[in-house]
Amino acid sequence: MSSEYFLLSRLYPQYDQLYKYTFVHQRVLEYRKYGFAPDVYRLRAGKPAADHVFEDVVCHTMPAEGLAERLSDSRYRAILIHGLNEPIWRAVEPSIAGRPVLVWVHGTEILDFQRRAFAYATTQERDAAERSYKQEMAFWRRLLTPPPANLKLVFVSHDAARQAMADLGFDIPRQNYTVIHNPIDVDTFVYEPKPADQRKKVLSIRPFKSPTYGNDMIIDTIRGLSKHPDFDELRFTIVGDGPLFDEIVDPVRDFSNVCLIKRYLLHDEIAYLHRQHGIFLVPTRFDTQGVSRDEAMSSGLVPVTNAMDAVPEFVDDTCGILAPPNDYQAMVRGIERLLEDPELFGRMSLAASQRVRAQSAAEVVTPQELELITGRRYSMA
């Protein structure tokens, strides 16, 4: 396996922090299937060097000076970065000469504050966040005017690239960016034909740390469906954690057909829940791809979501319910359609799985990333 590539991530998952850049870890696991294993690093300013292991992947955590020392090793052919910010760039910039630098942009890195202003409850929080966003955007504008010749940004959707350039106020040169979707593990999230009865079983798996996720619309949708004559036949499972969990789910705690699971899950646990449910309720107020939605679609769940940002790039009316922004009532109507038409549910379930397999399955996406990284074509090892 290769150790000639330096992968640096702002965060990396641990067993007590399962949702910290899981999308980076999934890439590393997929890369290994092709015989490619980058060294994985994480920057932690002011902290001593330490390693942790997550699902057999070693992540080396160290301060900037440690990263600079490691990068002085000439064996590293390229630098791969997830979650780039100014401290990370300061750590790697002295070592980029003669090396390709590939930076994945997942959606929140290059972003004008106004797109997220709704997520802050108080004037103090909004003011602090606005200052932070302005500093981040100033960094990106300095970096990209003009970008270093050996720098390439990898956006996870065309809409993410469009939004970033709109917020920057200028176009990034075409040779300095590309679009490759987040890979979906279709071997873990396996499609099995859904029995019609599963259209009555609704699953939601979300972090509860920001209004961005739209989890309040999950609750509004359940309450809206409570007026349906067959509501007692429905089953809802809400999974997640975060500072907003208890407050948001409180209005449905007394519903006997709502199961609340306050914790994060490993992929095998998620896949198990996918097999028990037929609808994936995943509202959003900001989206650049939606990995958890695509994983559910891969398993054959019909997504019920909002036509926001990049969502229509991955979901259409043949494979999911697309409600207008902030419109939980349209979600209610969409679920009612699926309840009333089991054949429609079956068609959408199959189409959802097929859409993911054609567009963003790891076997489609990973070779694209590896060819970008190494310049070589890859097939499964």
What does this molecule look like?
- By secondary structure, the chain is α/β, with parallel strands linked by helices.
- The protein folds into two domains: 5-183 and 361-374, 3-Layer(aba) Sandwich (Rossmann fold); 196-359, 3-Layer(aba) Sandwich (Rossmann fold).
- Helices cover 36% and strands 17% of the residues.
- It has twelve helices and 14 strands.
- It has helices at residues 22-33, 64-71, 86-92, 123-143, 158-168, 215-225, 245-249, 267-276, 291-298, 328-340, 342-359, 362-374; strands at residues 5-9, 39-43, 50-54, 57-62, 78-82, 101-105, 151-155, 177-179, 201-205, 235-240, 258-262, 279-281, 302-306, 321-323.
- The strands form two sheets. Strands 3-4-2-1-5-6-7-8 form an eight-stranded mixed sheet.
- Helix 3 links the parallel strand 5 and strand 6.
- Helix 2 runs parallel beside helix 3 (86-92).
- It is globular.
List the helices and strands and how they pair.
Blueprint: E1 5-9, H1 22-33, E2 39-43, E3 50-54, E4 57-62, H2 64-71, E5 78-82, H3 86-92, E6 101-105, H4 123-143, E7 151-155, H5 158-168, E8 177-179, E9 201-205, H6 215-225, E10 235-240, H7 245-249, E11 258-262, H8 267-276, E12 279-281, H9 291-298, E13 302-306, E14 321-323, H10 328-340, H11 342-359, H12 362-374
Parallel strand pairs: 1-2, 1-5, 2-4, 5-6, 6-7, 7-8, 9-10, 9-12, 10-11, 12-13, 13-14
Antiparallel strand pairs: 3-4
